[in-house]
Amino acid sequence: MFFRSKQKKADEQMCLSVKQSCCDFFGHNVSEHVHVERVSDDAVNIRLGFVCDTEKSSLIAHLNEHFSAASQPDQSKANINKALSKAPLEFNVRYNVPIFDSKQPPVRNVKNIIAVSSGKGGVGKSATAVNLALALKAQGARVGILDADIYGPSIPLMLGTENASPMSPDNKHMMPIVAHGLVSNSIGYLVKNEHASIWRGPMASKALTQLVTETNWPLLDYLIVDMPPGTGDIQLTMAQQLPLTAAVVVTTPQDIALSDAQKGIAMFNKLQVPVLGLVENMSFFECPACHHQSHIFSSKGAQKLSAKYSLPILAEVPLAPLIREYADAGDSLFEQAPEHSLCAIYLRGAYLLSRQMASQLVISPLAQTSKIEVTQLN
Ligand SMILES: Nc1ncnc2c1ncn2[C@@H]1O[C@H](COP(=O)(O)OP(=O)(O)OP(=O)(O)O)[C@@H](O)[C@H]1O
To answer: How far is residue 204's CA from residue 201's CA, in Å, rounded to a whole number?
Structure first.
């Protein structure tokens, strides 16, 4: 009896510290989603609102965690081990990228589809989509990119795959094009730009649906979709047809871009697609000689939007000739200049993006357990 009550107290204590540890880990209060329950003398179930598994005497918690956390496994493991230090259990963390259910049928092999969108054209949406995809890949995720900007597909140029065309071994499905470790498909691989640009709404949406569903995607943690600019009927239909997990809105700091970005946020809100955050592109220009920063397109625009909609700013990307040069050459900034400060900006953006995804997972009723295990980084 005495032992039981002591054990109960120890369990309560352990439960509290696991919850606290999870809150620290996720960076906000998730305690009501954390369920800790002793299932036998030597096993405890921890369910982080969505996952739980026990194996023999060691406790295996499947953390549906974002990829970037896998680059700090010791940190997270240490946190949780600390919380469990009183329990005679071994604690292992396996990393799973979370999956969301969607109202639309899922795309085979694709865990999460993230739209990169902008209310206004020419703000650097495609460049942002490519660099975020490369940054997620650099952090260990399996990433694909879908060029849904069927009126101005620029992904083939930016990936250096302009002359590629997808093979179809079974005459039904296309094999995506591989470049810089990303798989991609684009209407630009299939038809000449001038042909796609005369397509009308239904034809354009049908082409997009085919591009998504008839591509033989390998197992992907993230499929980044470069949406066409704007928030008209075409964008709305496209966003409705895709089983989107979440969206990222790209803007420049100037008022005209911001007001269009708001329309983008409103569109995703209407479709109940969570917006993970904002990317402010062409935020400033830093003079290479004196390092003075000029705010060519105004300043603090994204900050205002961020405050108004409670959205994080994932990245403030400068106006930097290198971004255009690499994009035009179809080269990867991450392969050619991995130490460059621009890479750090995109890597942080990707980190925040995937972290936001993990947070959405905790609060979203659409979240489900990922069954696919992701290899932990060394
Ligand atoms: N931060 C930046 N610094 C310098 N050049 C940039 C930056 N971002 C994008 N660019 C360049 O600006 C041009 C337009 O960018 P991009 O094609 O990504 O814009 P977009 O918003 O996708 O355009 P569209 O509306 O046509 O789809 C490209 O040449 C790109 O390389």
So the answer is: 5
